[in-house]
Amino acid sequence: RAVVIGPPDEVAPWRSLEAADYYRLLTGREPARDGTVRCPSALHEDRHPSAHLYPGAGRGWFCFACGAGGGAVDMVAALRGWPTGVALRGRRFAACADELRRLLGAADPR
């Protein structure tokens, strides 16, 4: 079972989504039934699916070829060619979170 640490769902509504759900929302693509997808990172030209979307809210995604991965905010960052994981912070993190709130129709908590 994944332990989710961070803002509550009212501030971060994407936390209740499975990786496949936000992958569809962000890319417009359908993942394979086994959860494999081409890496969403703009920095990784992935010809063969090397990323995996884990089932269950809060479980996230990971690319076994380039090491990108994380949650929904990290996927937005990867699509923009930005770092993921602990390297994603500050203005870039805020911009990715704002993009998710906009796509999900959630209010900005600020």
What does this structure look like?
It is globular and about 35 Å long. Residues 1-5 have low confidence and may be disordered. The chain has 110 residues and is α+β, with helices and mostly antiparallel strands. The protein contains three helices and four strands. The chain has helices at 19-27, 72-79, 90-104, and strands spanning 36-37, 51-53, 61-63, 69-70.
Summarize the structure.
The protein has 110 residues and is an alpha+beta fold. The chain contains three helices and four strands; from the N terminus they run αββββαα.
Annotate the secondary structure layout.
Layout: H1 19-27, E1 36-37, E2 51-53, E3 61-63, E4 69-70, H2 72-79, H3 90-104
Antiparallel strand pairs: 1-2, 2-3, 3-4
Key words describing this protein structure:
alpha+beta; 3 helices; 9% strand; 4 strands; 110 residues; 29% helix; 4-stranded antiparallel sheet; globular
Strand content: 5-15%
Q: Considering DSSP H and I runs of 4 or more, what fraction of the residues is helical?
A: 25-40%
Query: Mean of residue pLDDT?
Result: 88
Largest sheet descriptor: 4 strands, antiparallel
- What is the total tally of β strands? 4
Total number of helices: 3
Shape: globular
* Global structural class: alpha+beta
Q: Cα-atom Rg, whole angstroms?
A: 13 Å
> What separation lies between the terminal Cα atoms?
31 Å
SSE topology string: HEEEEHH
Largest beta sheet: what is the strand line-up?
1-2-3-4
Which stretches are poorly predicted, pLDDT < 50 over at least 5 residues?
1-5
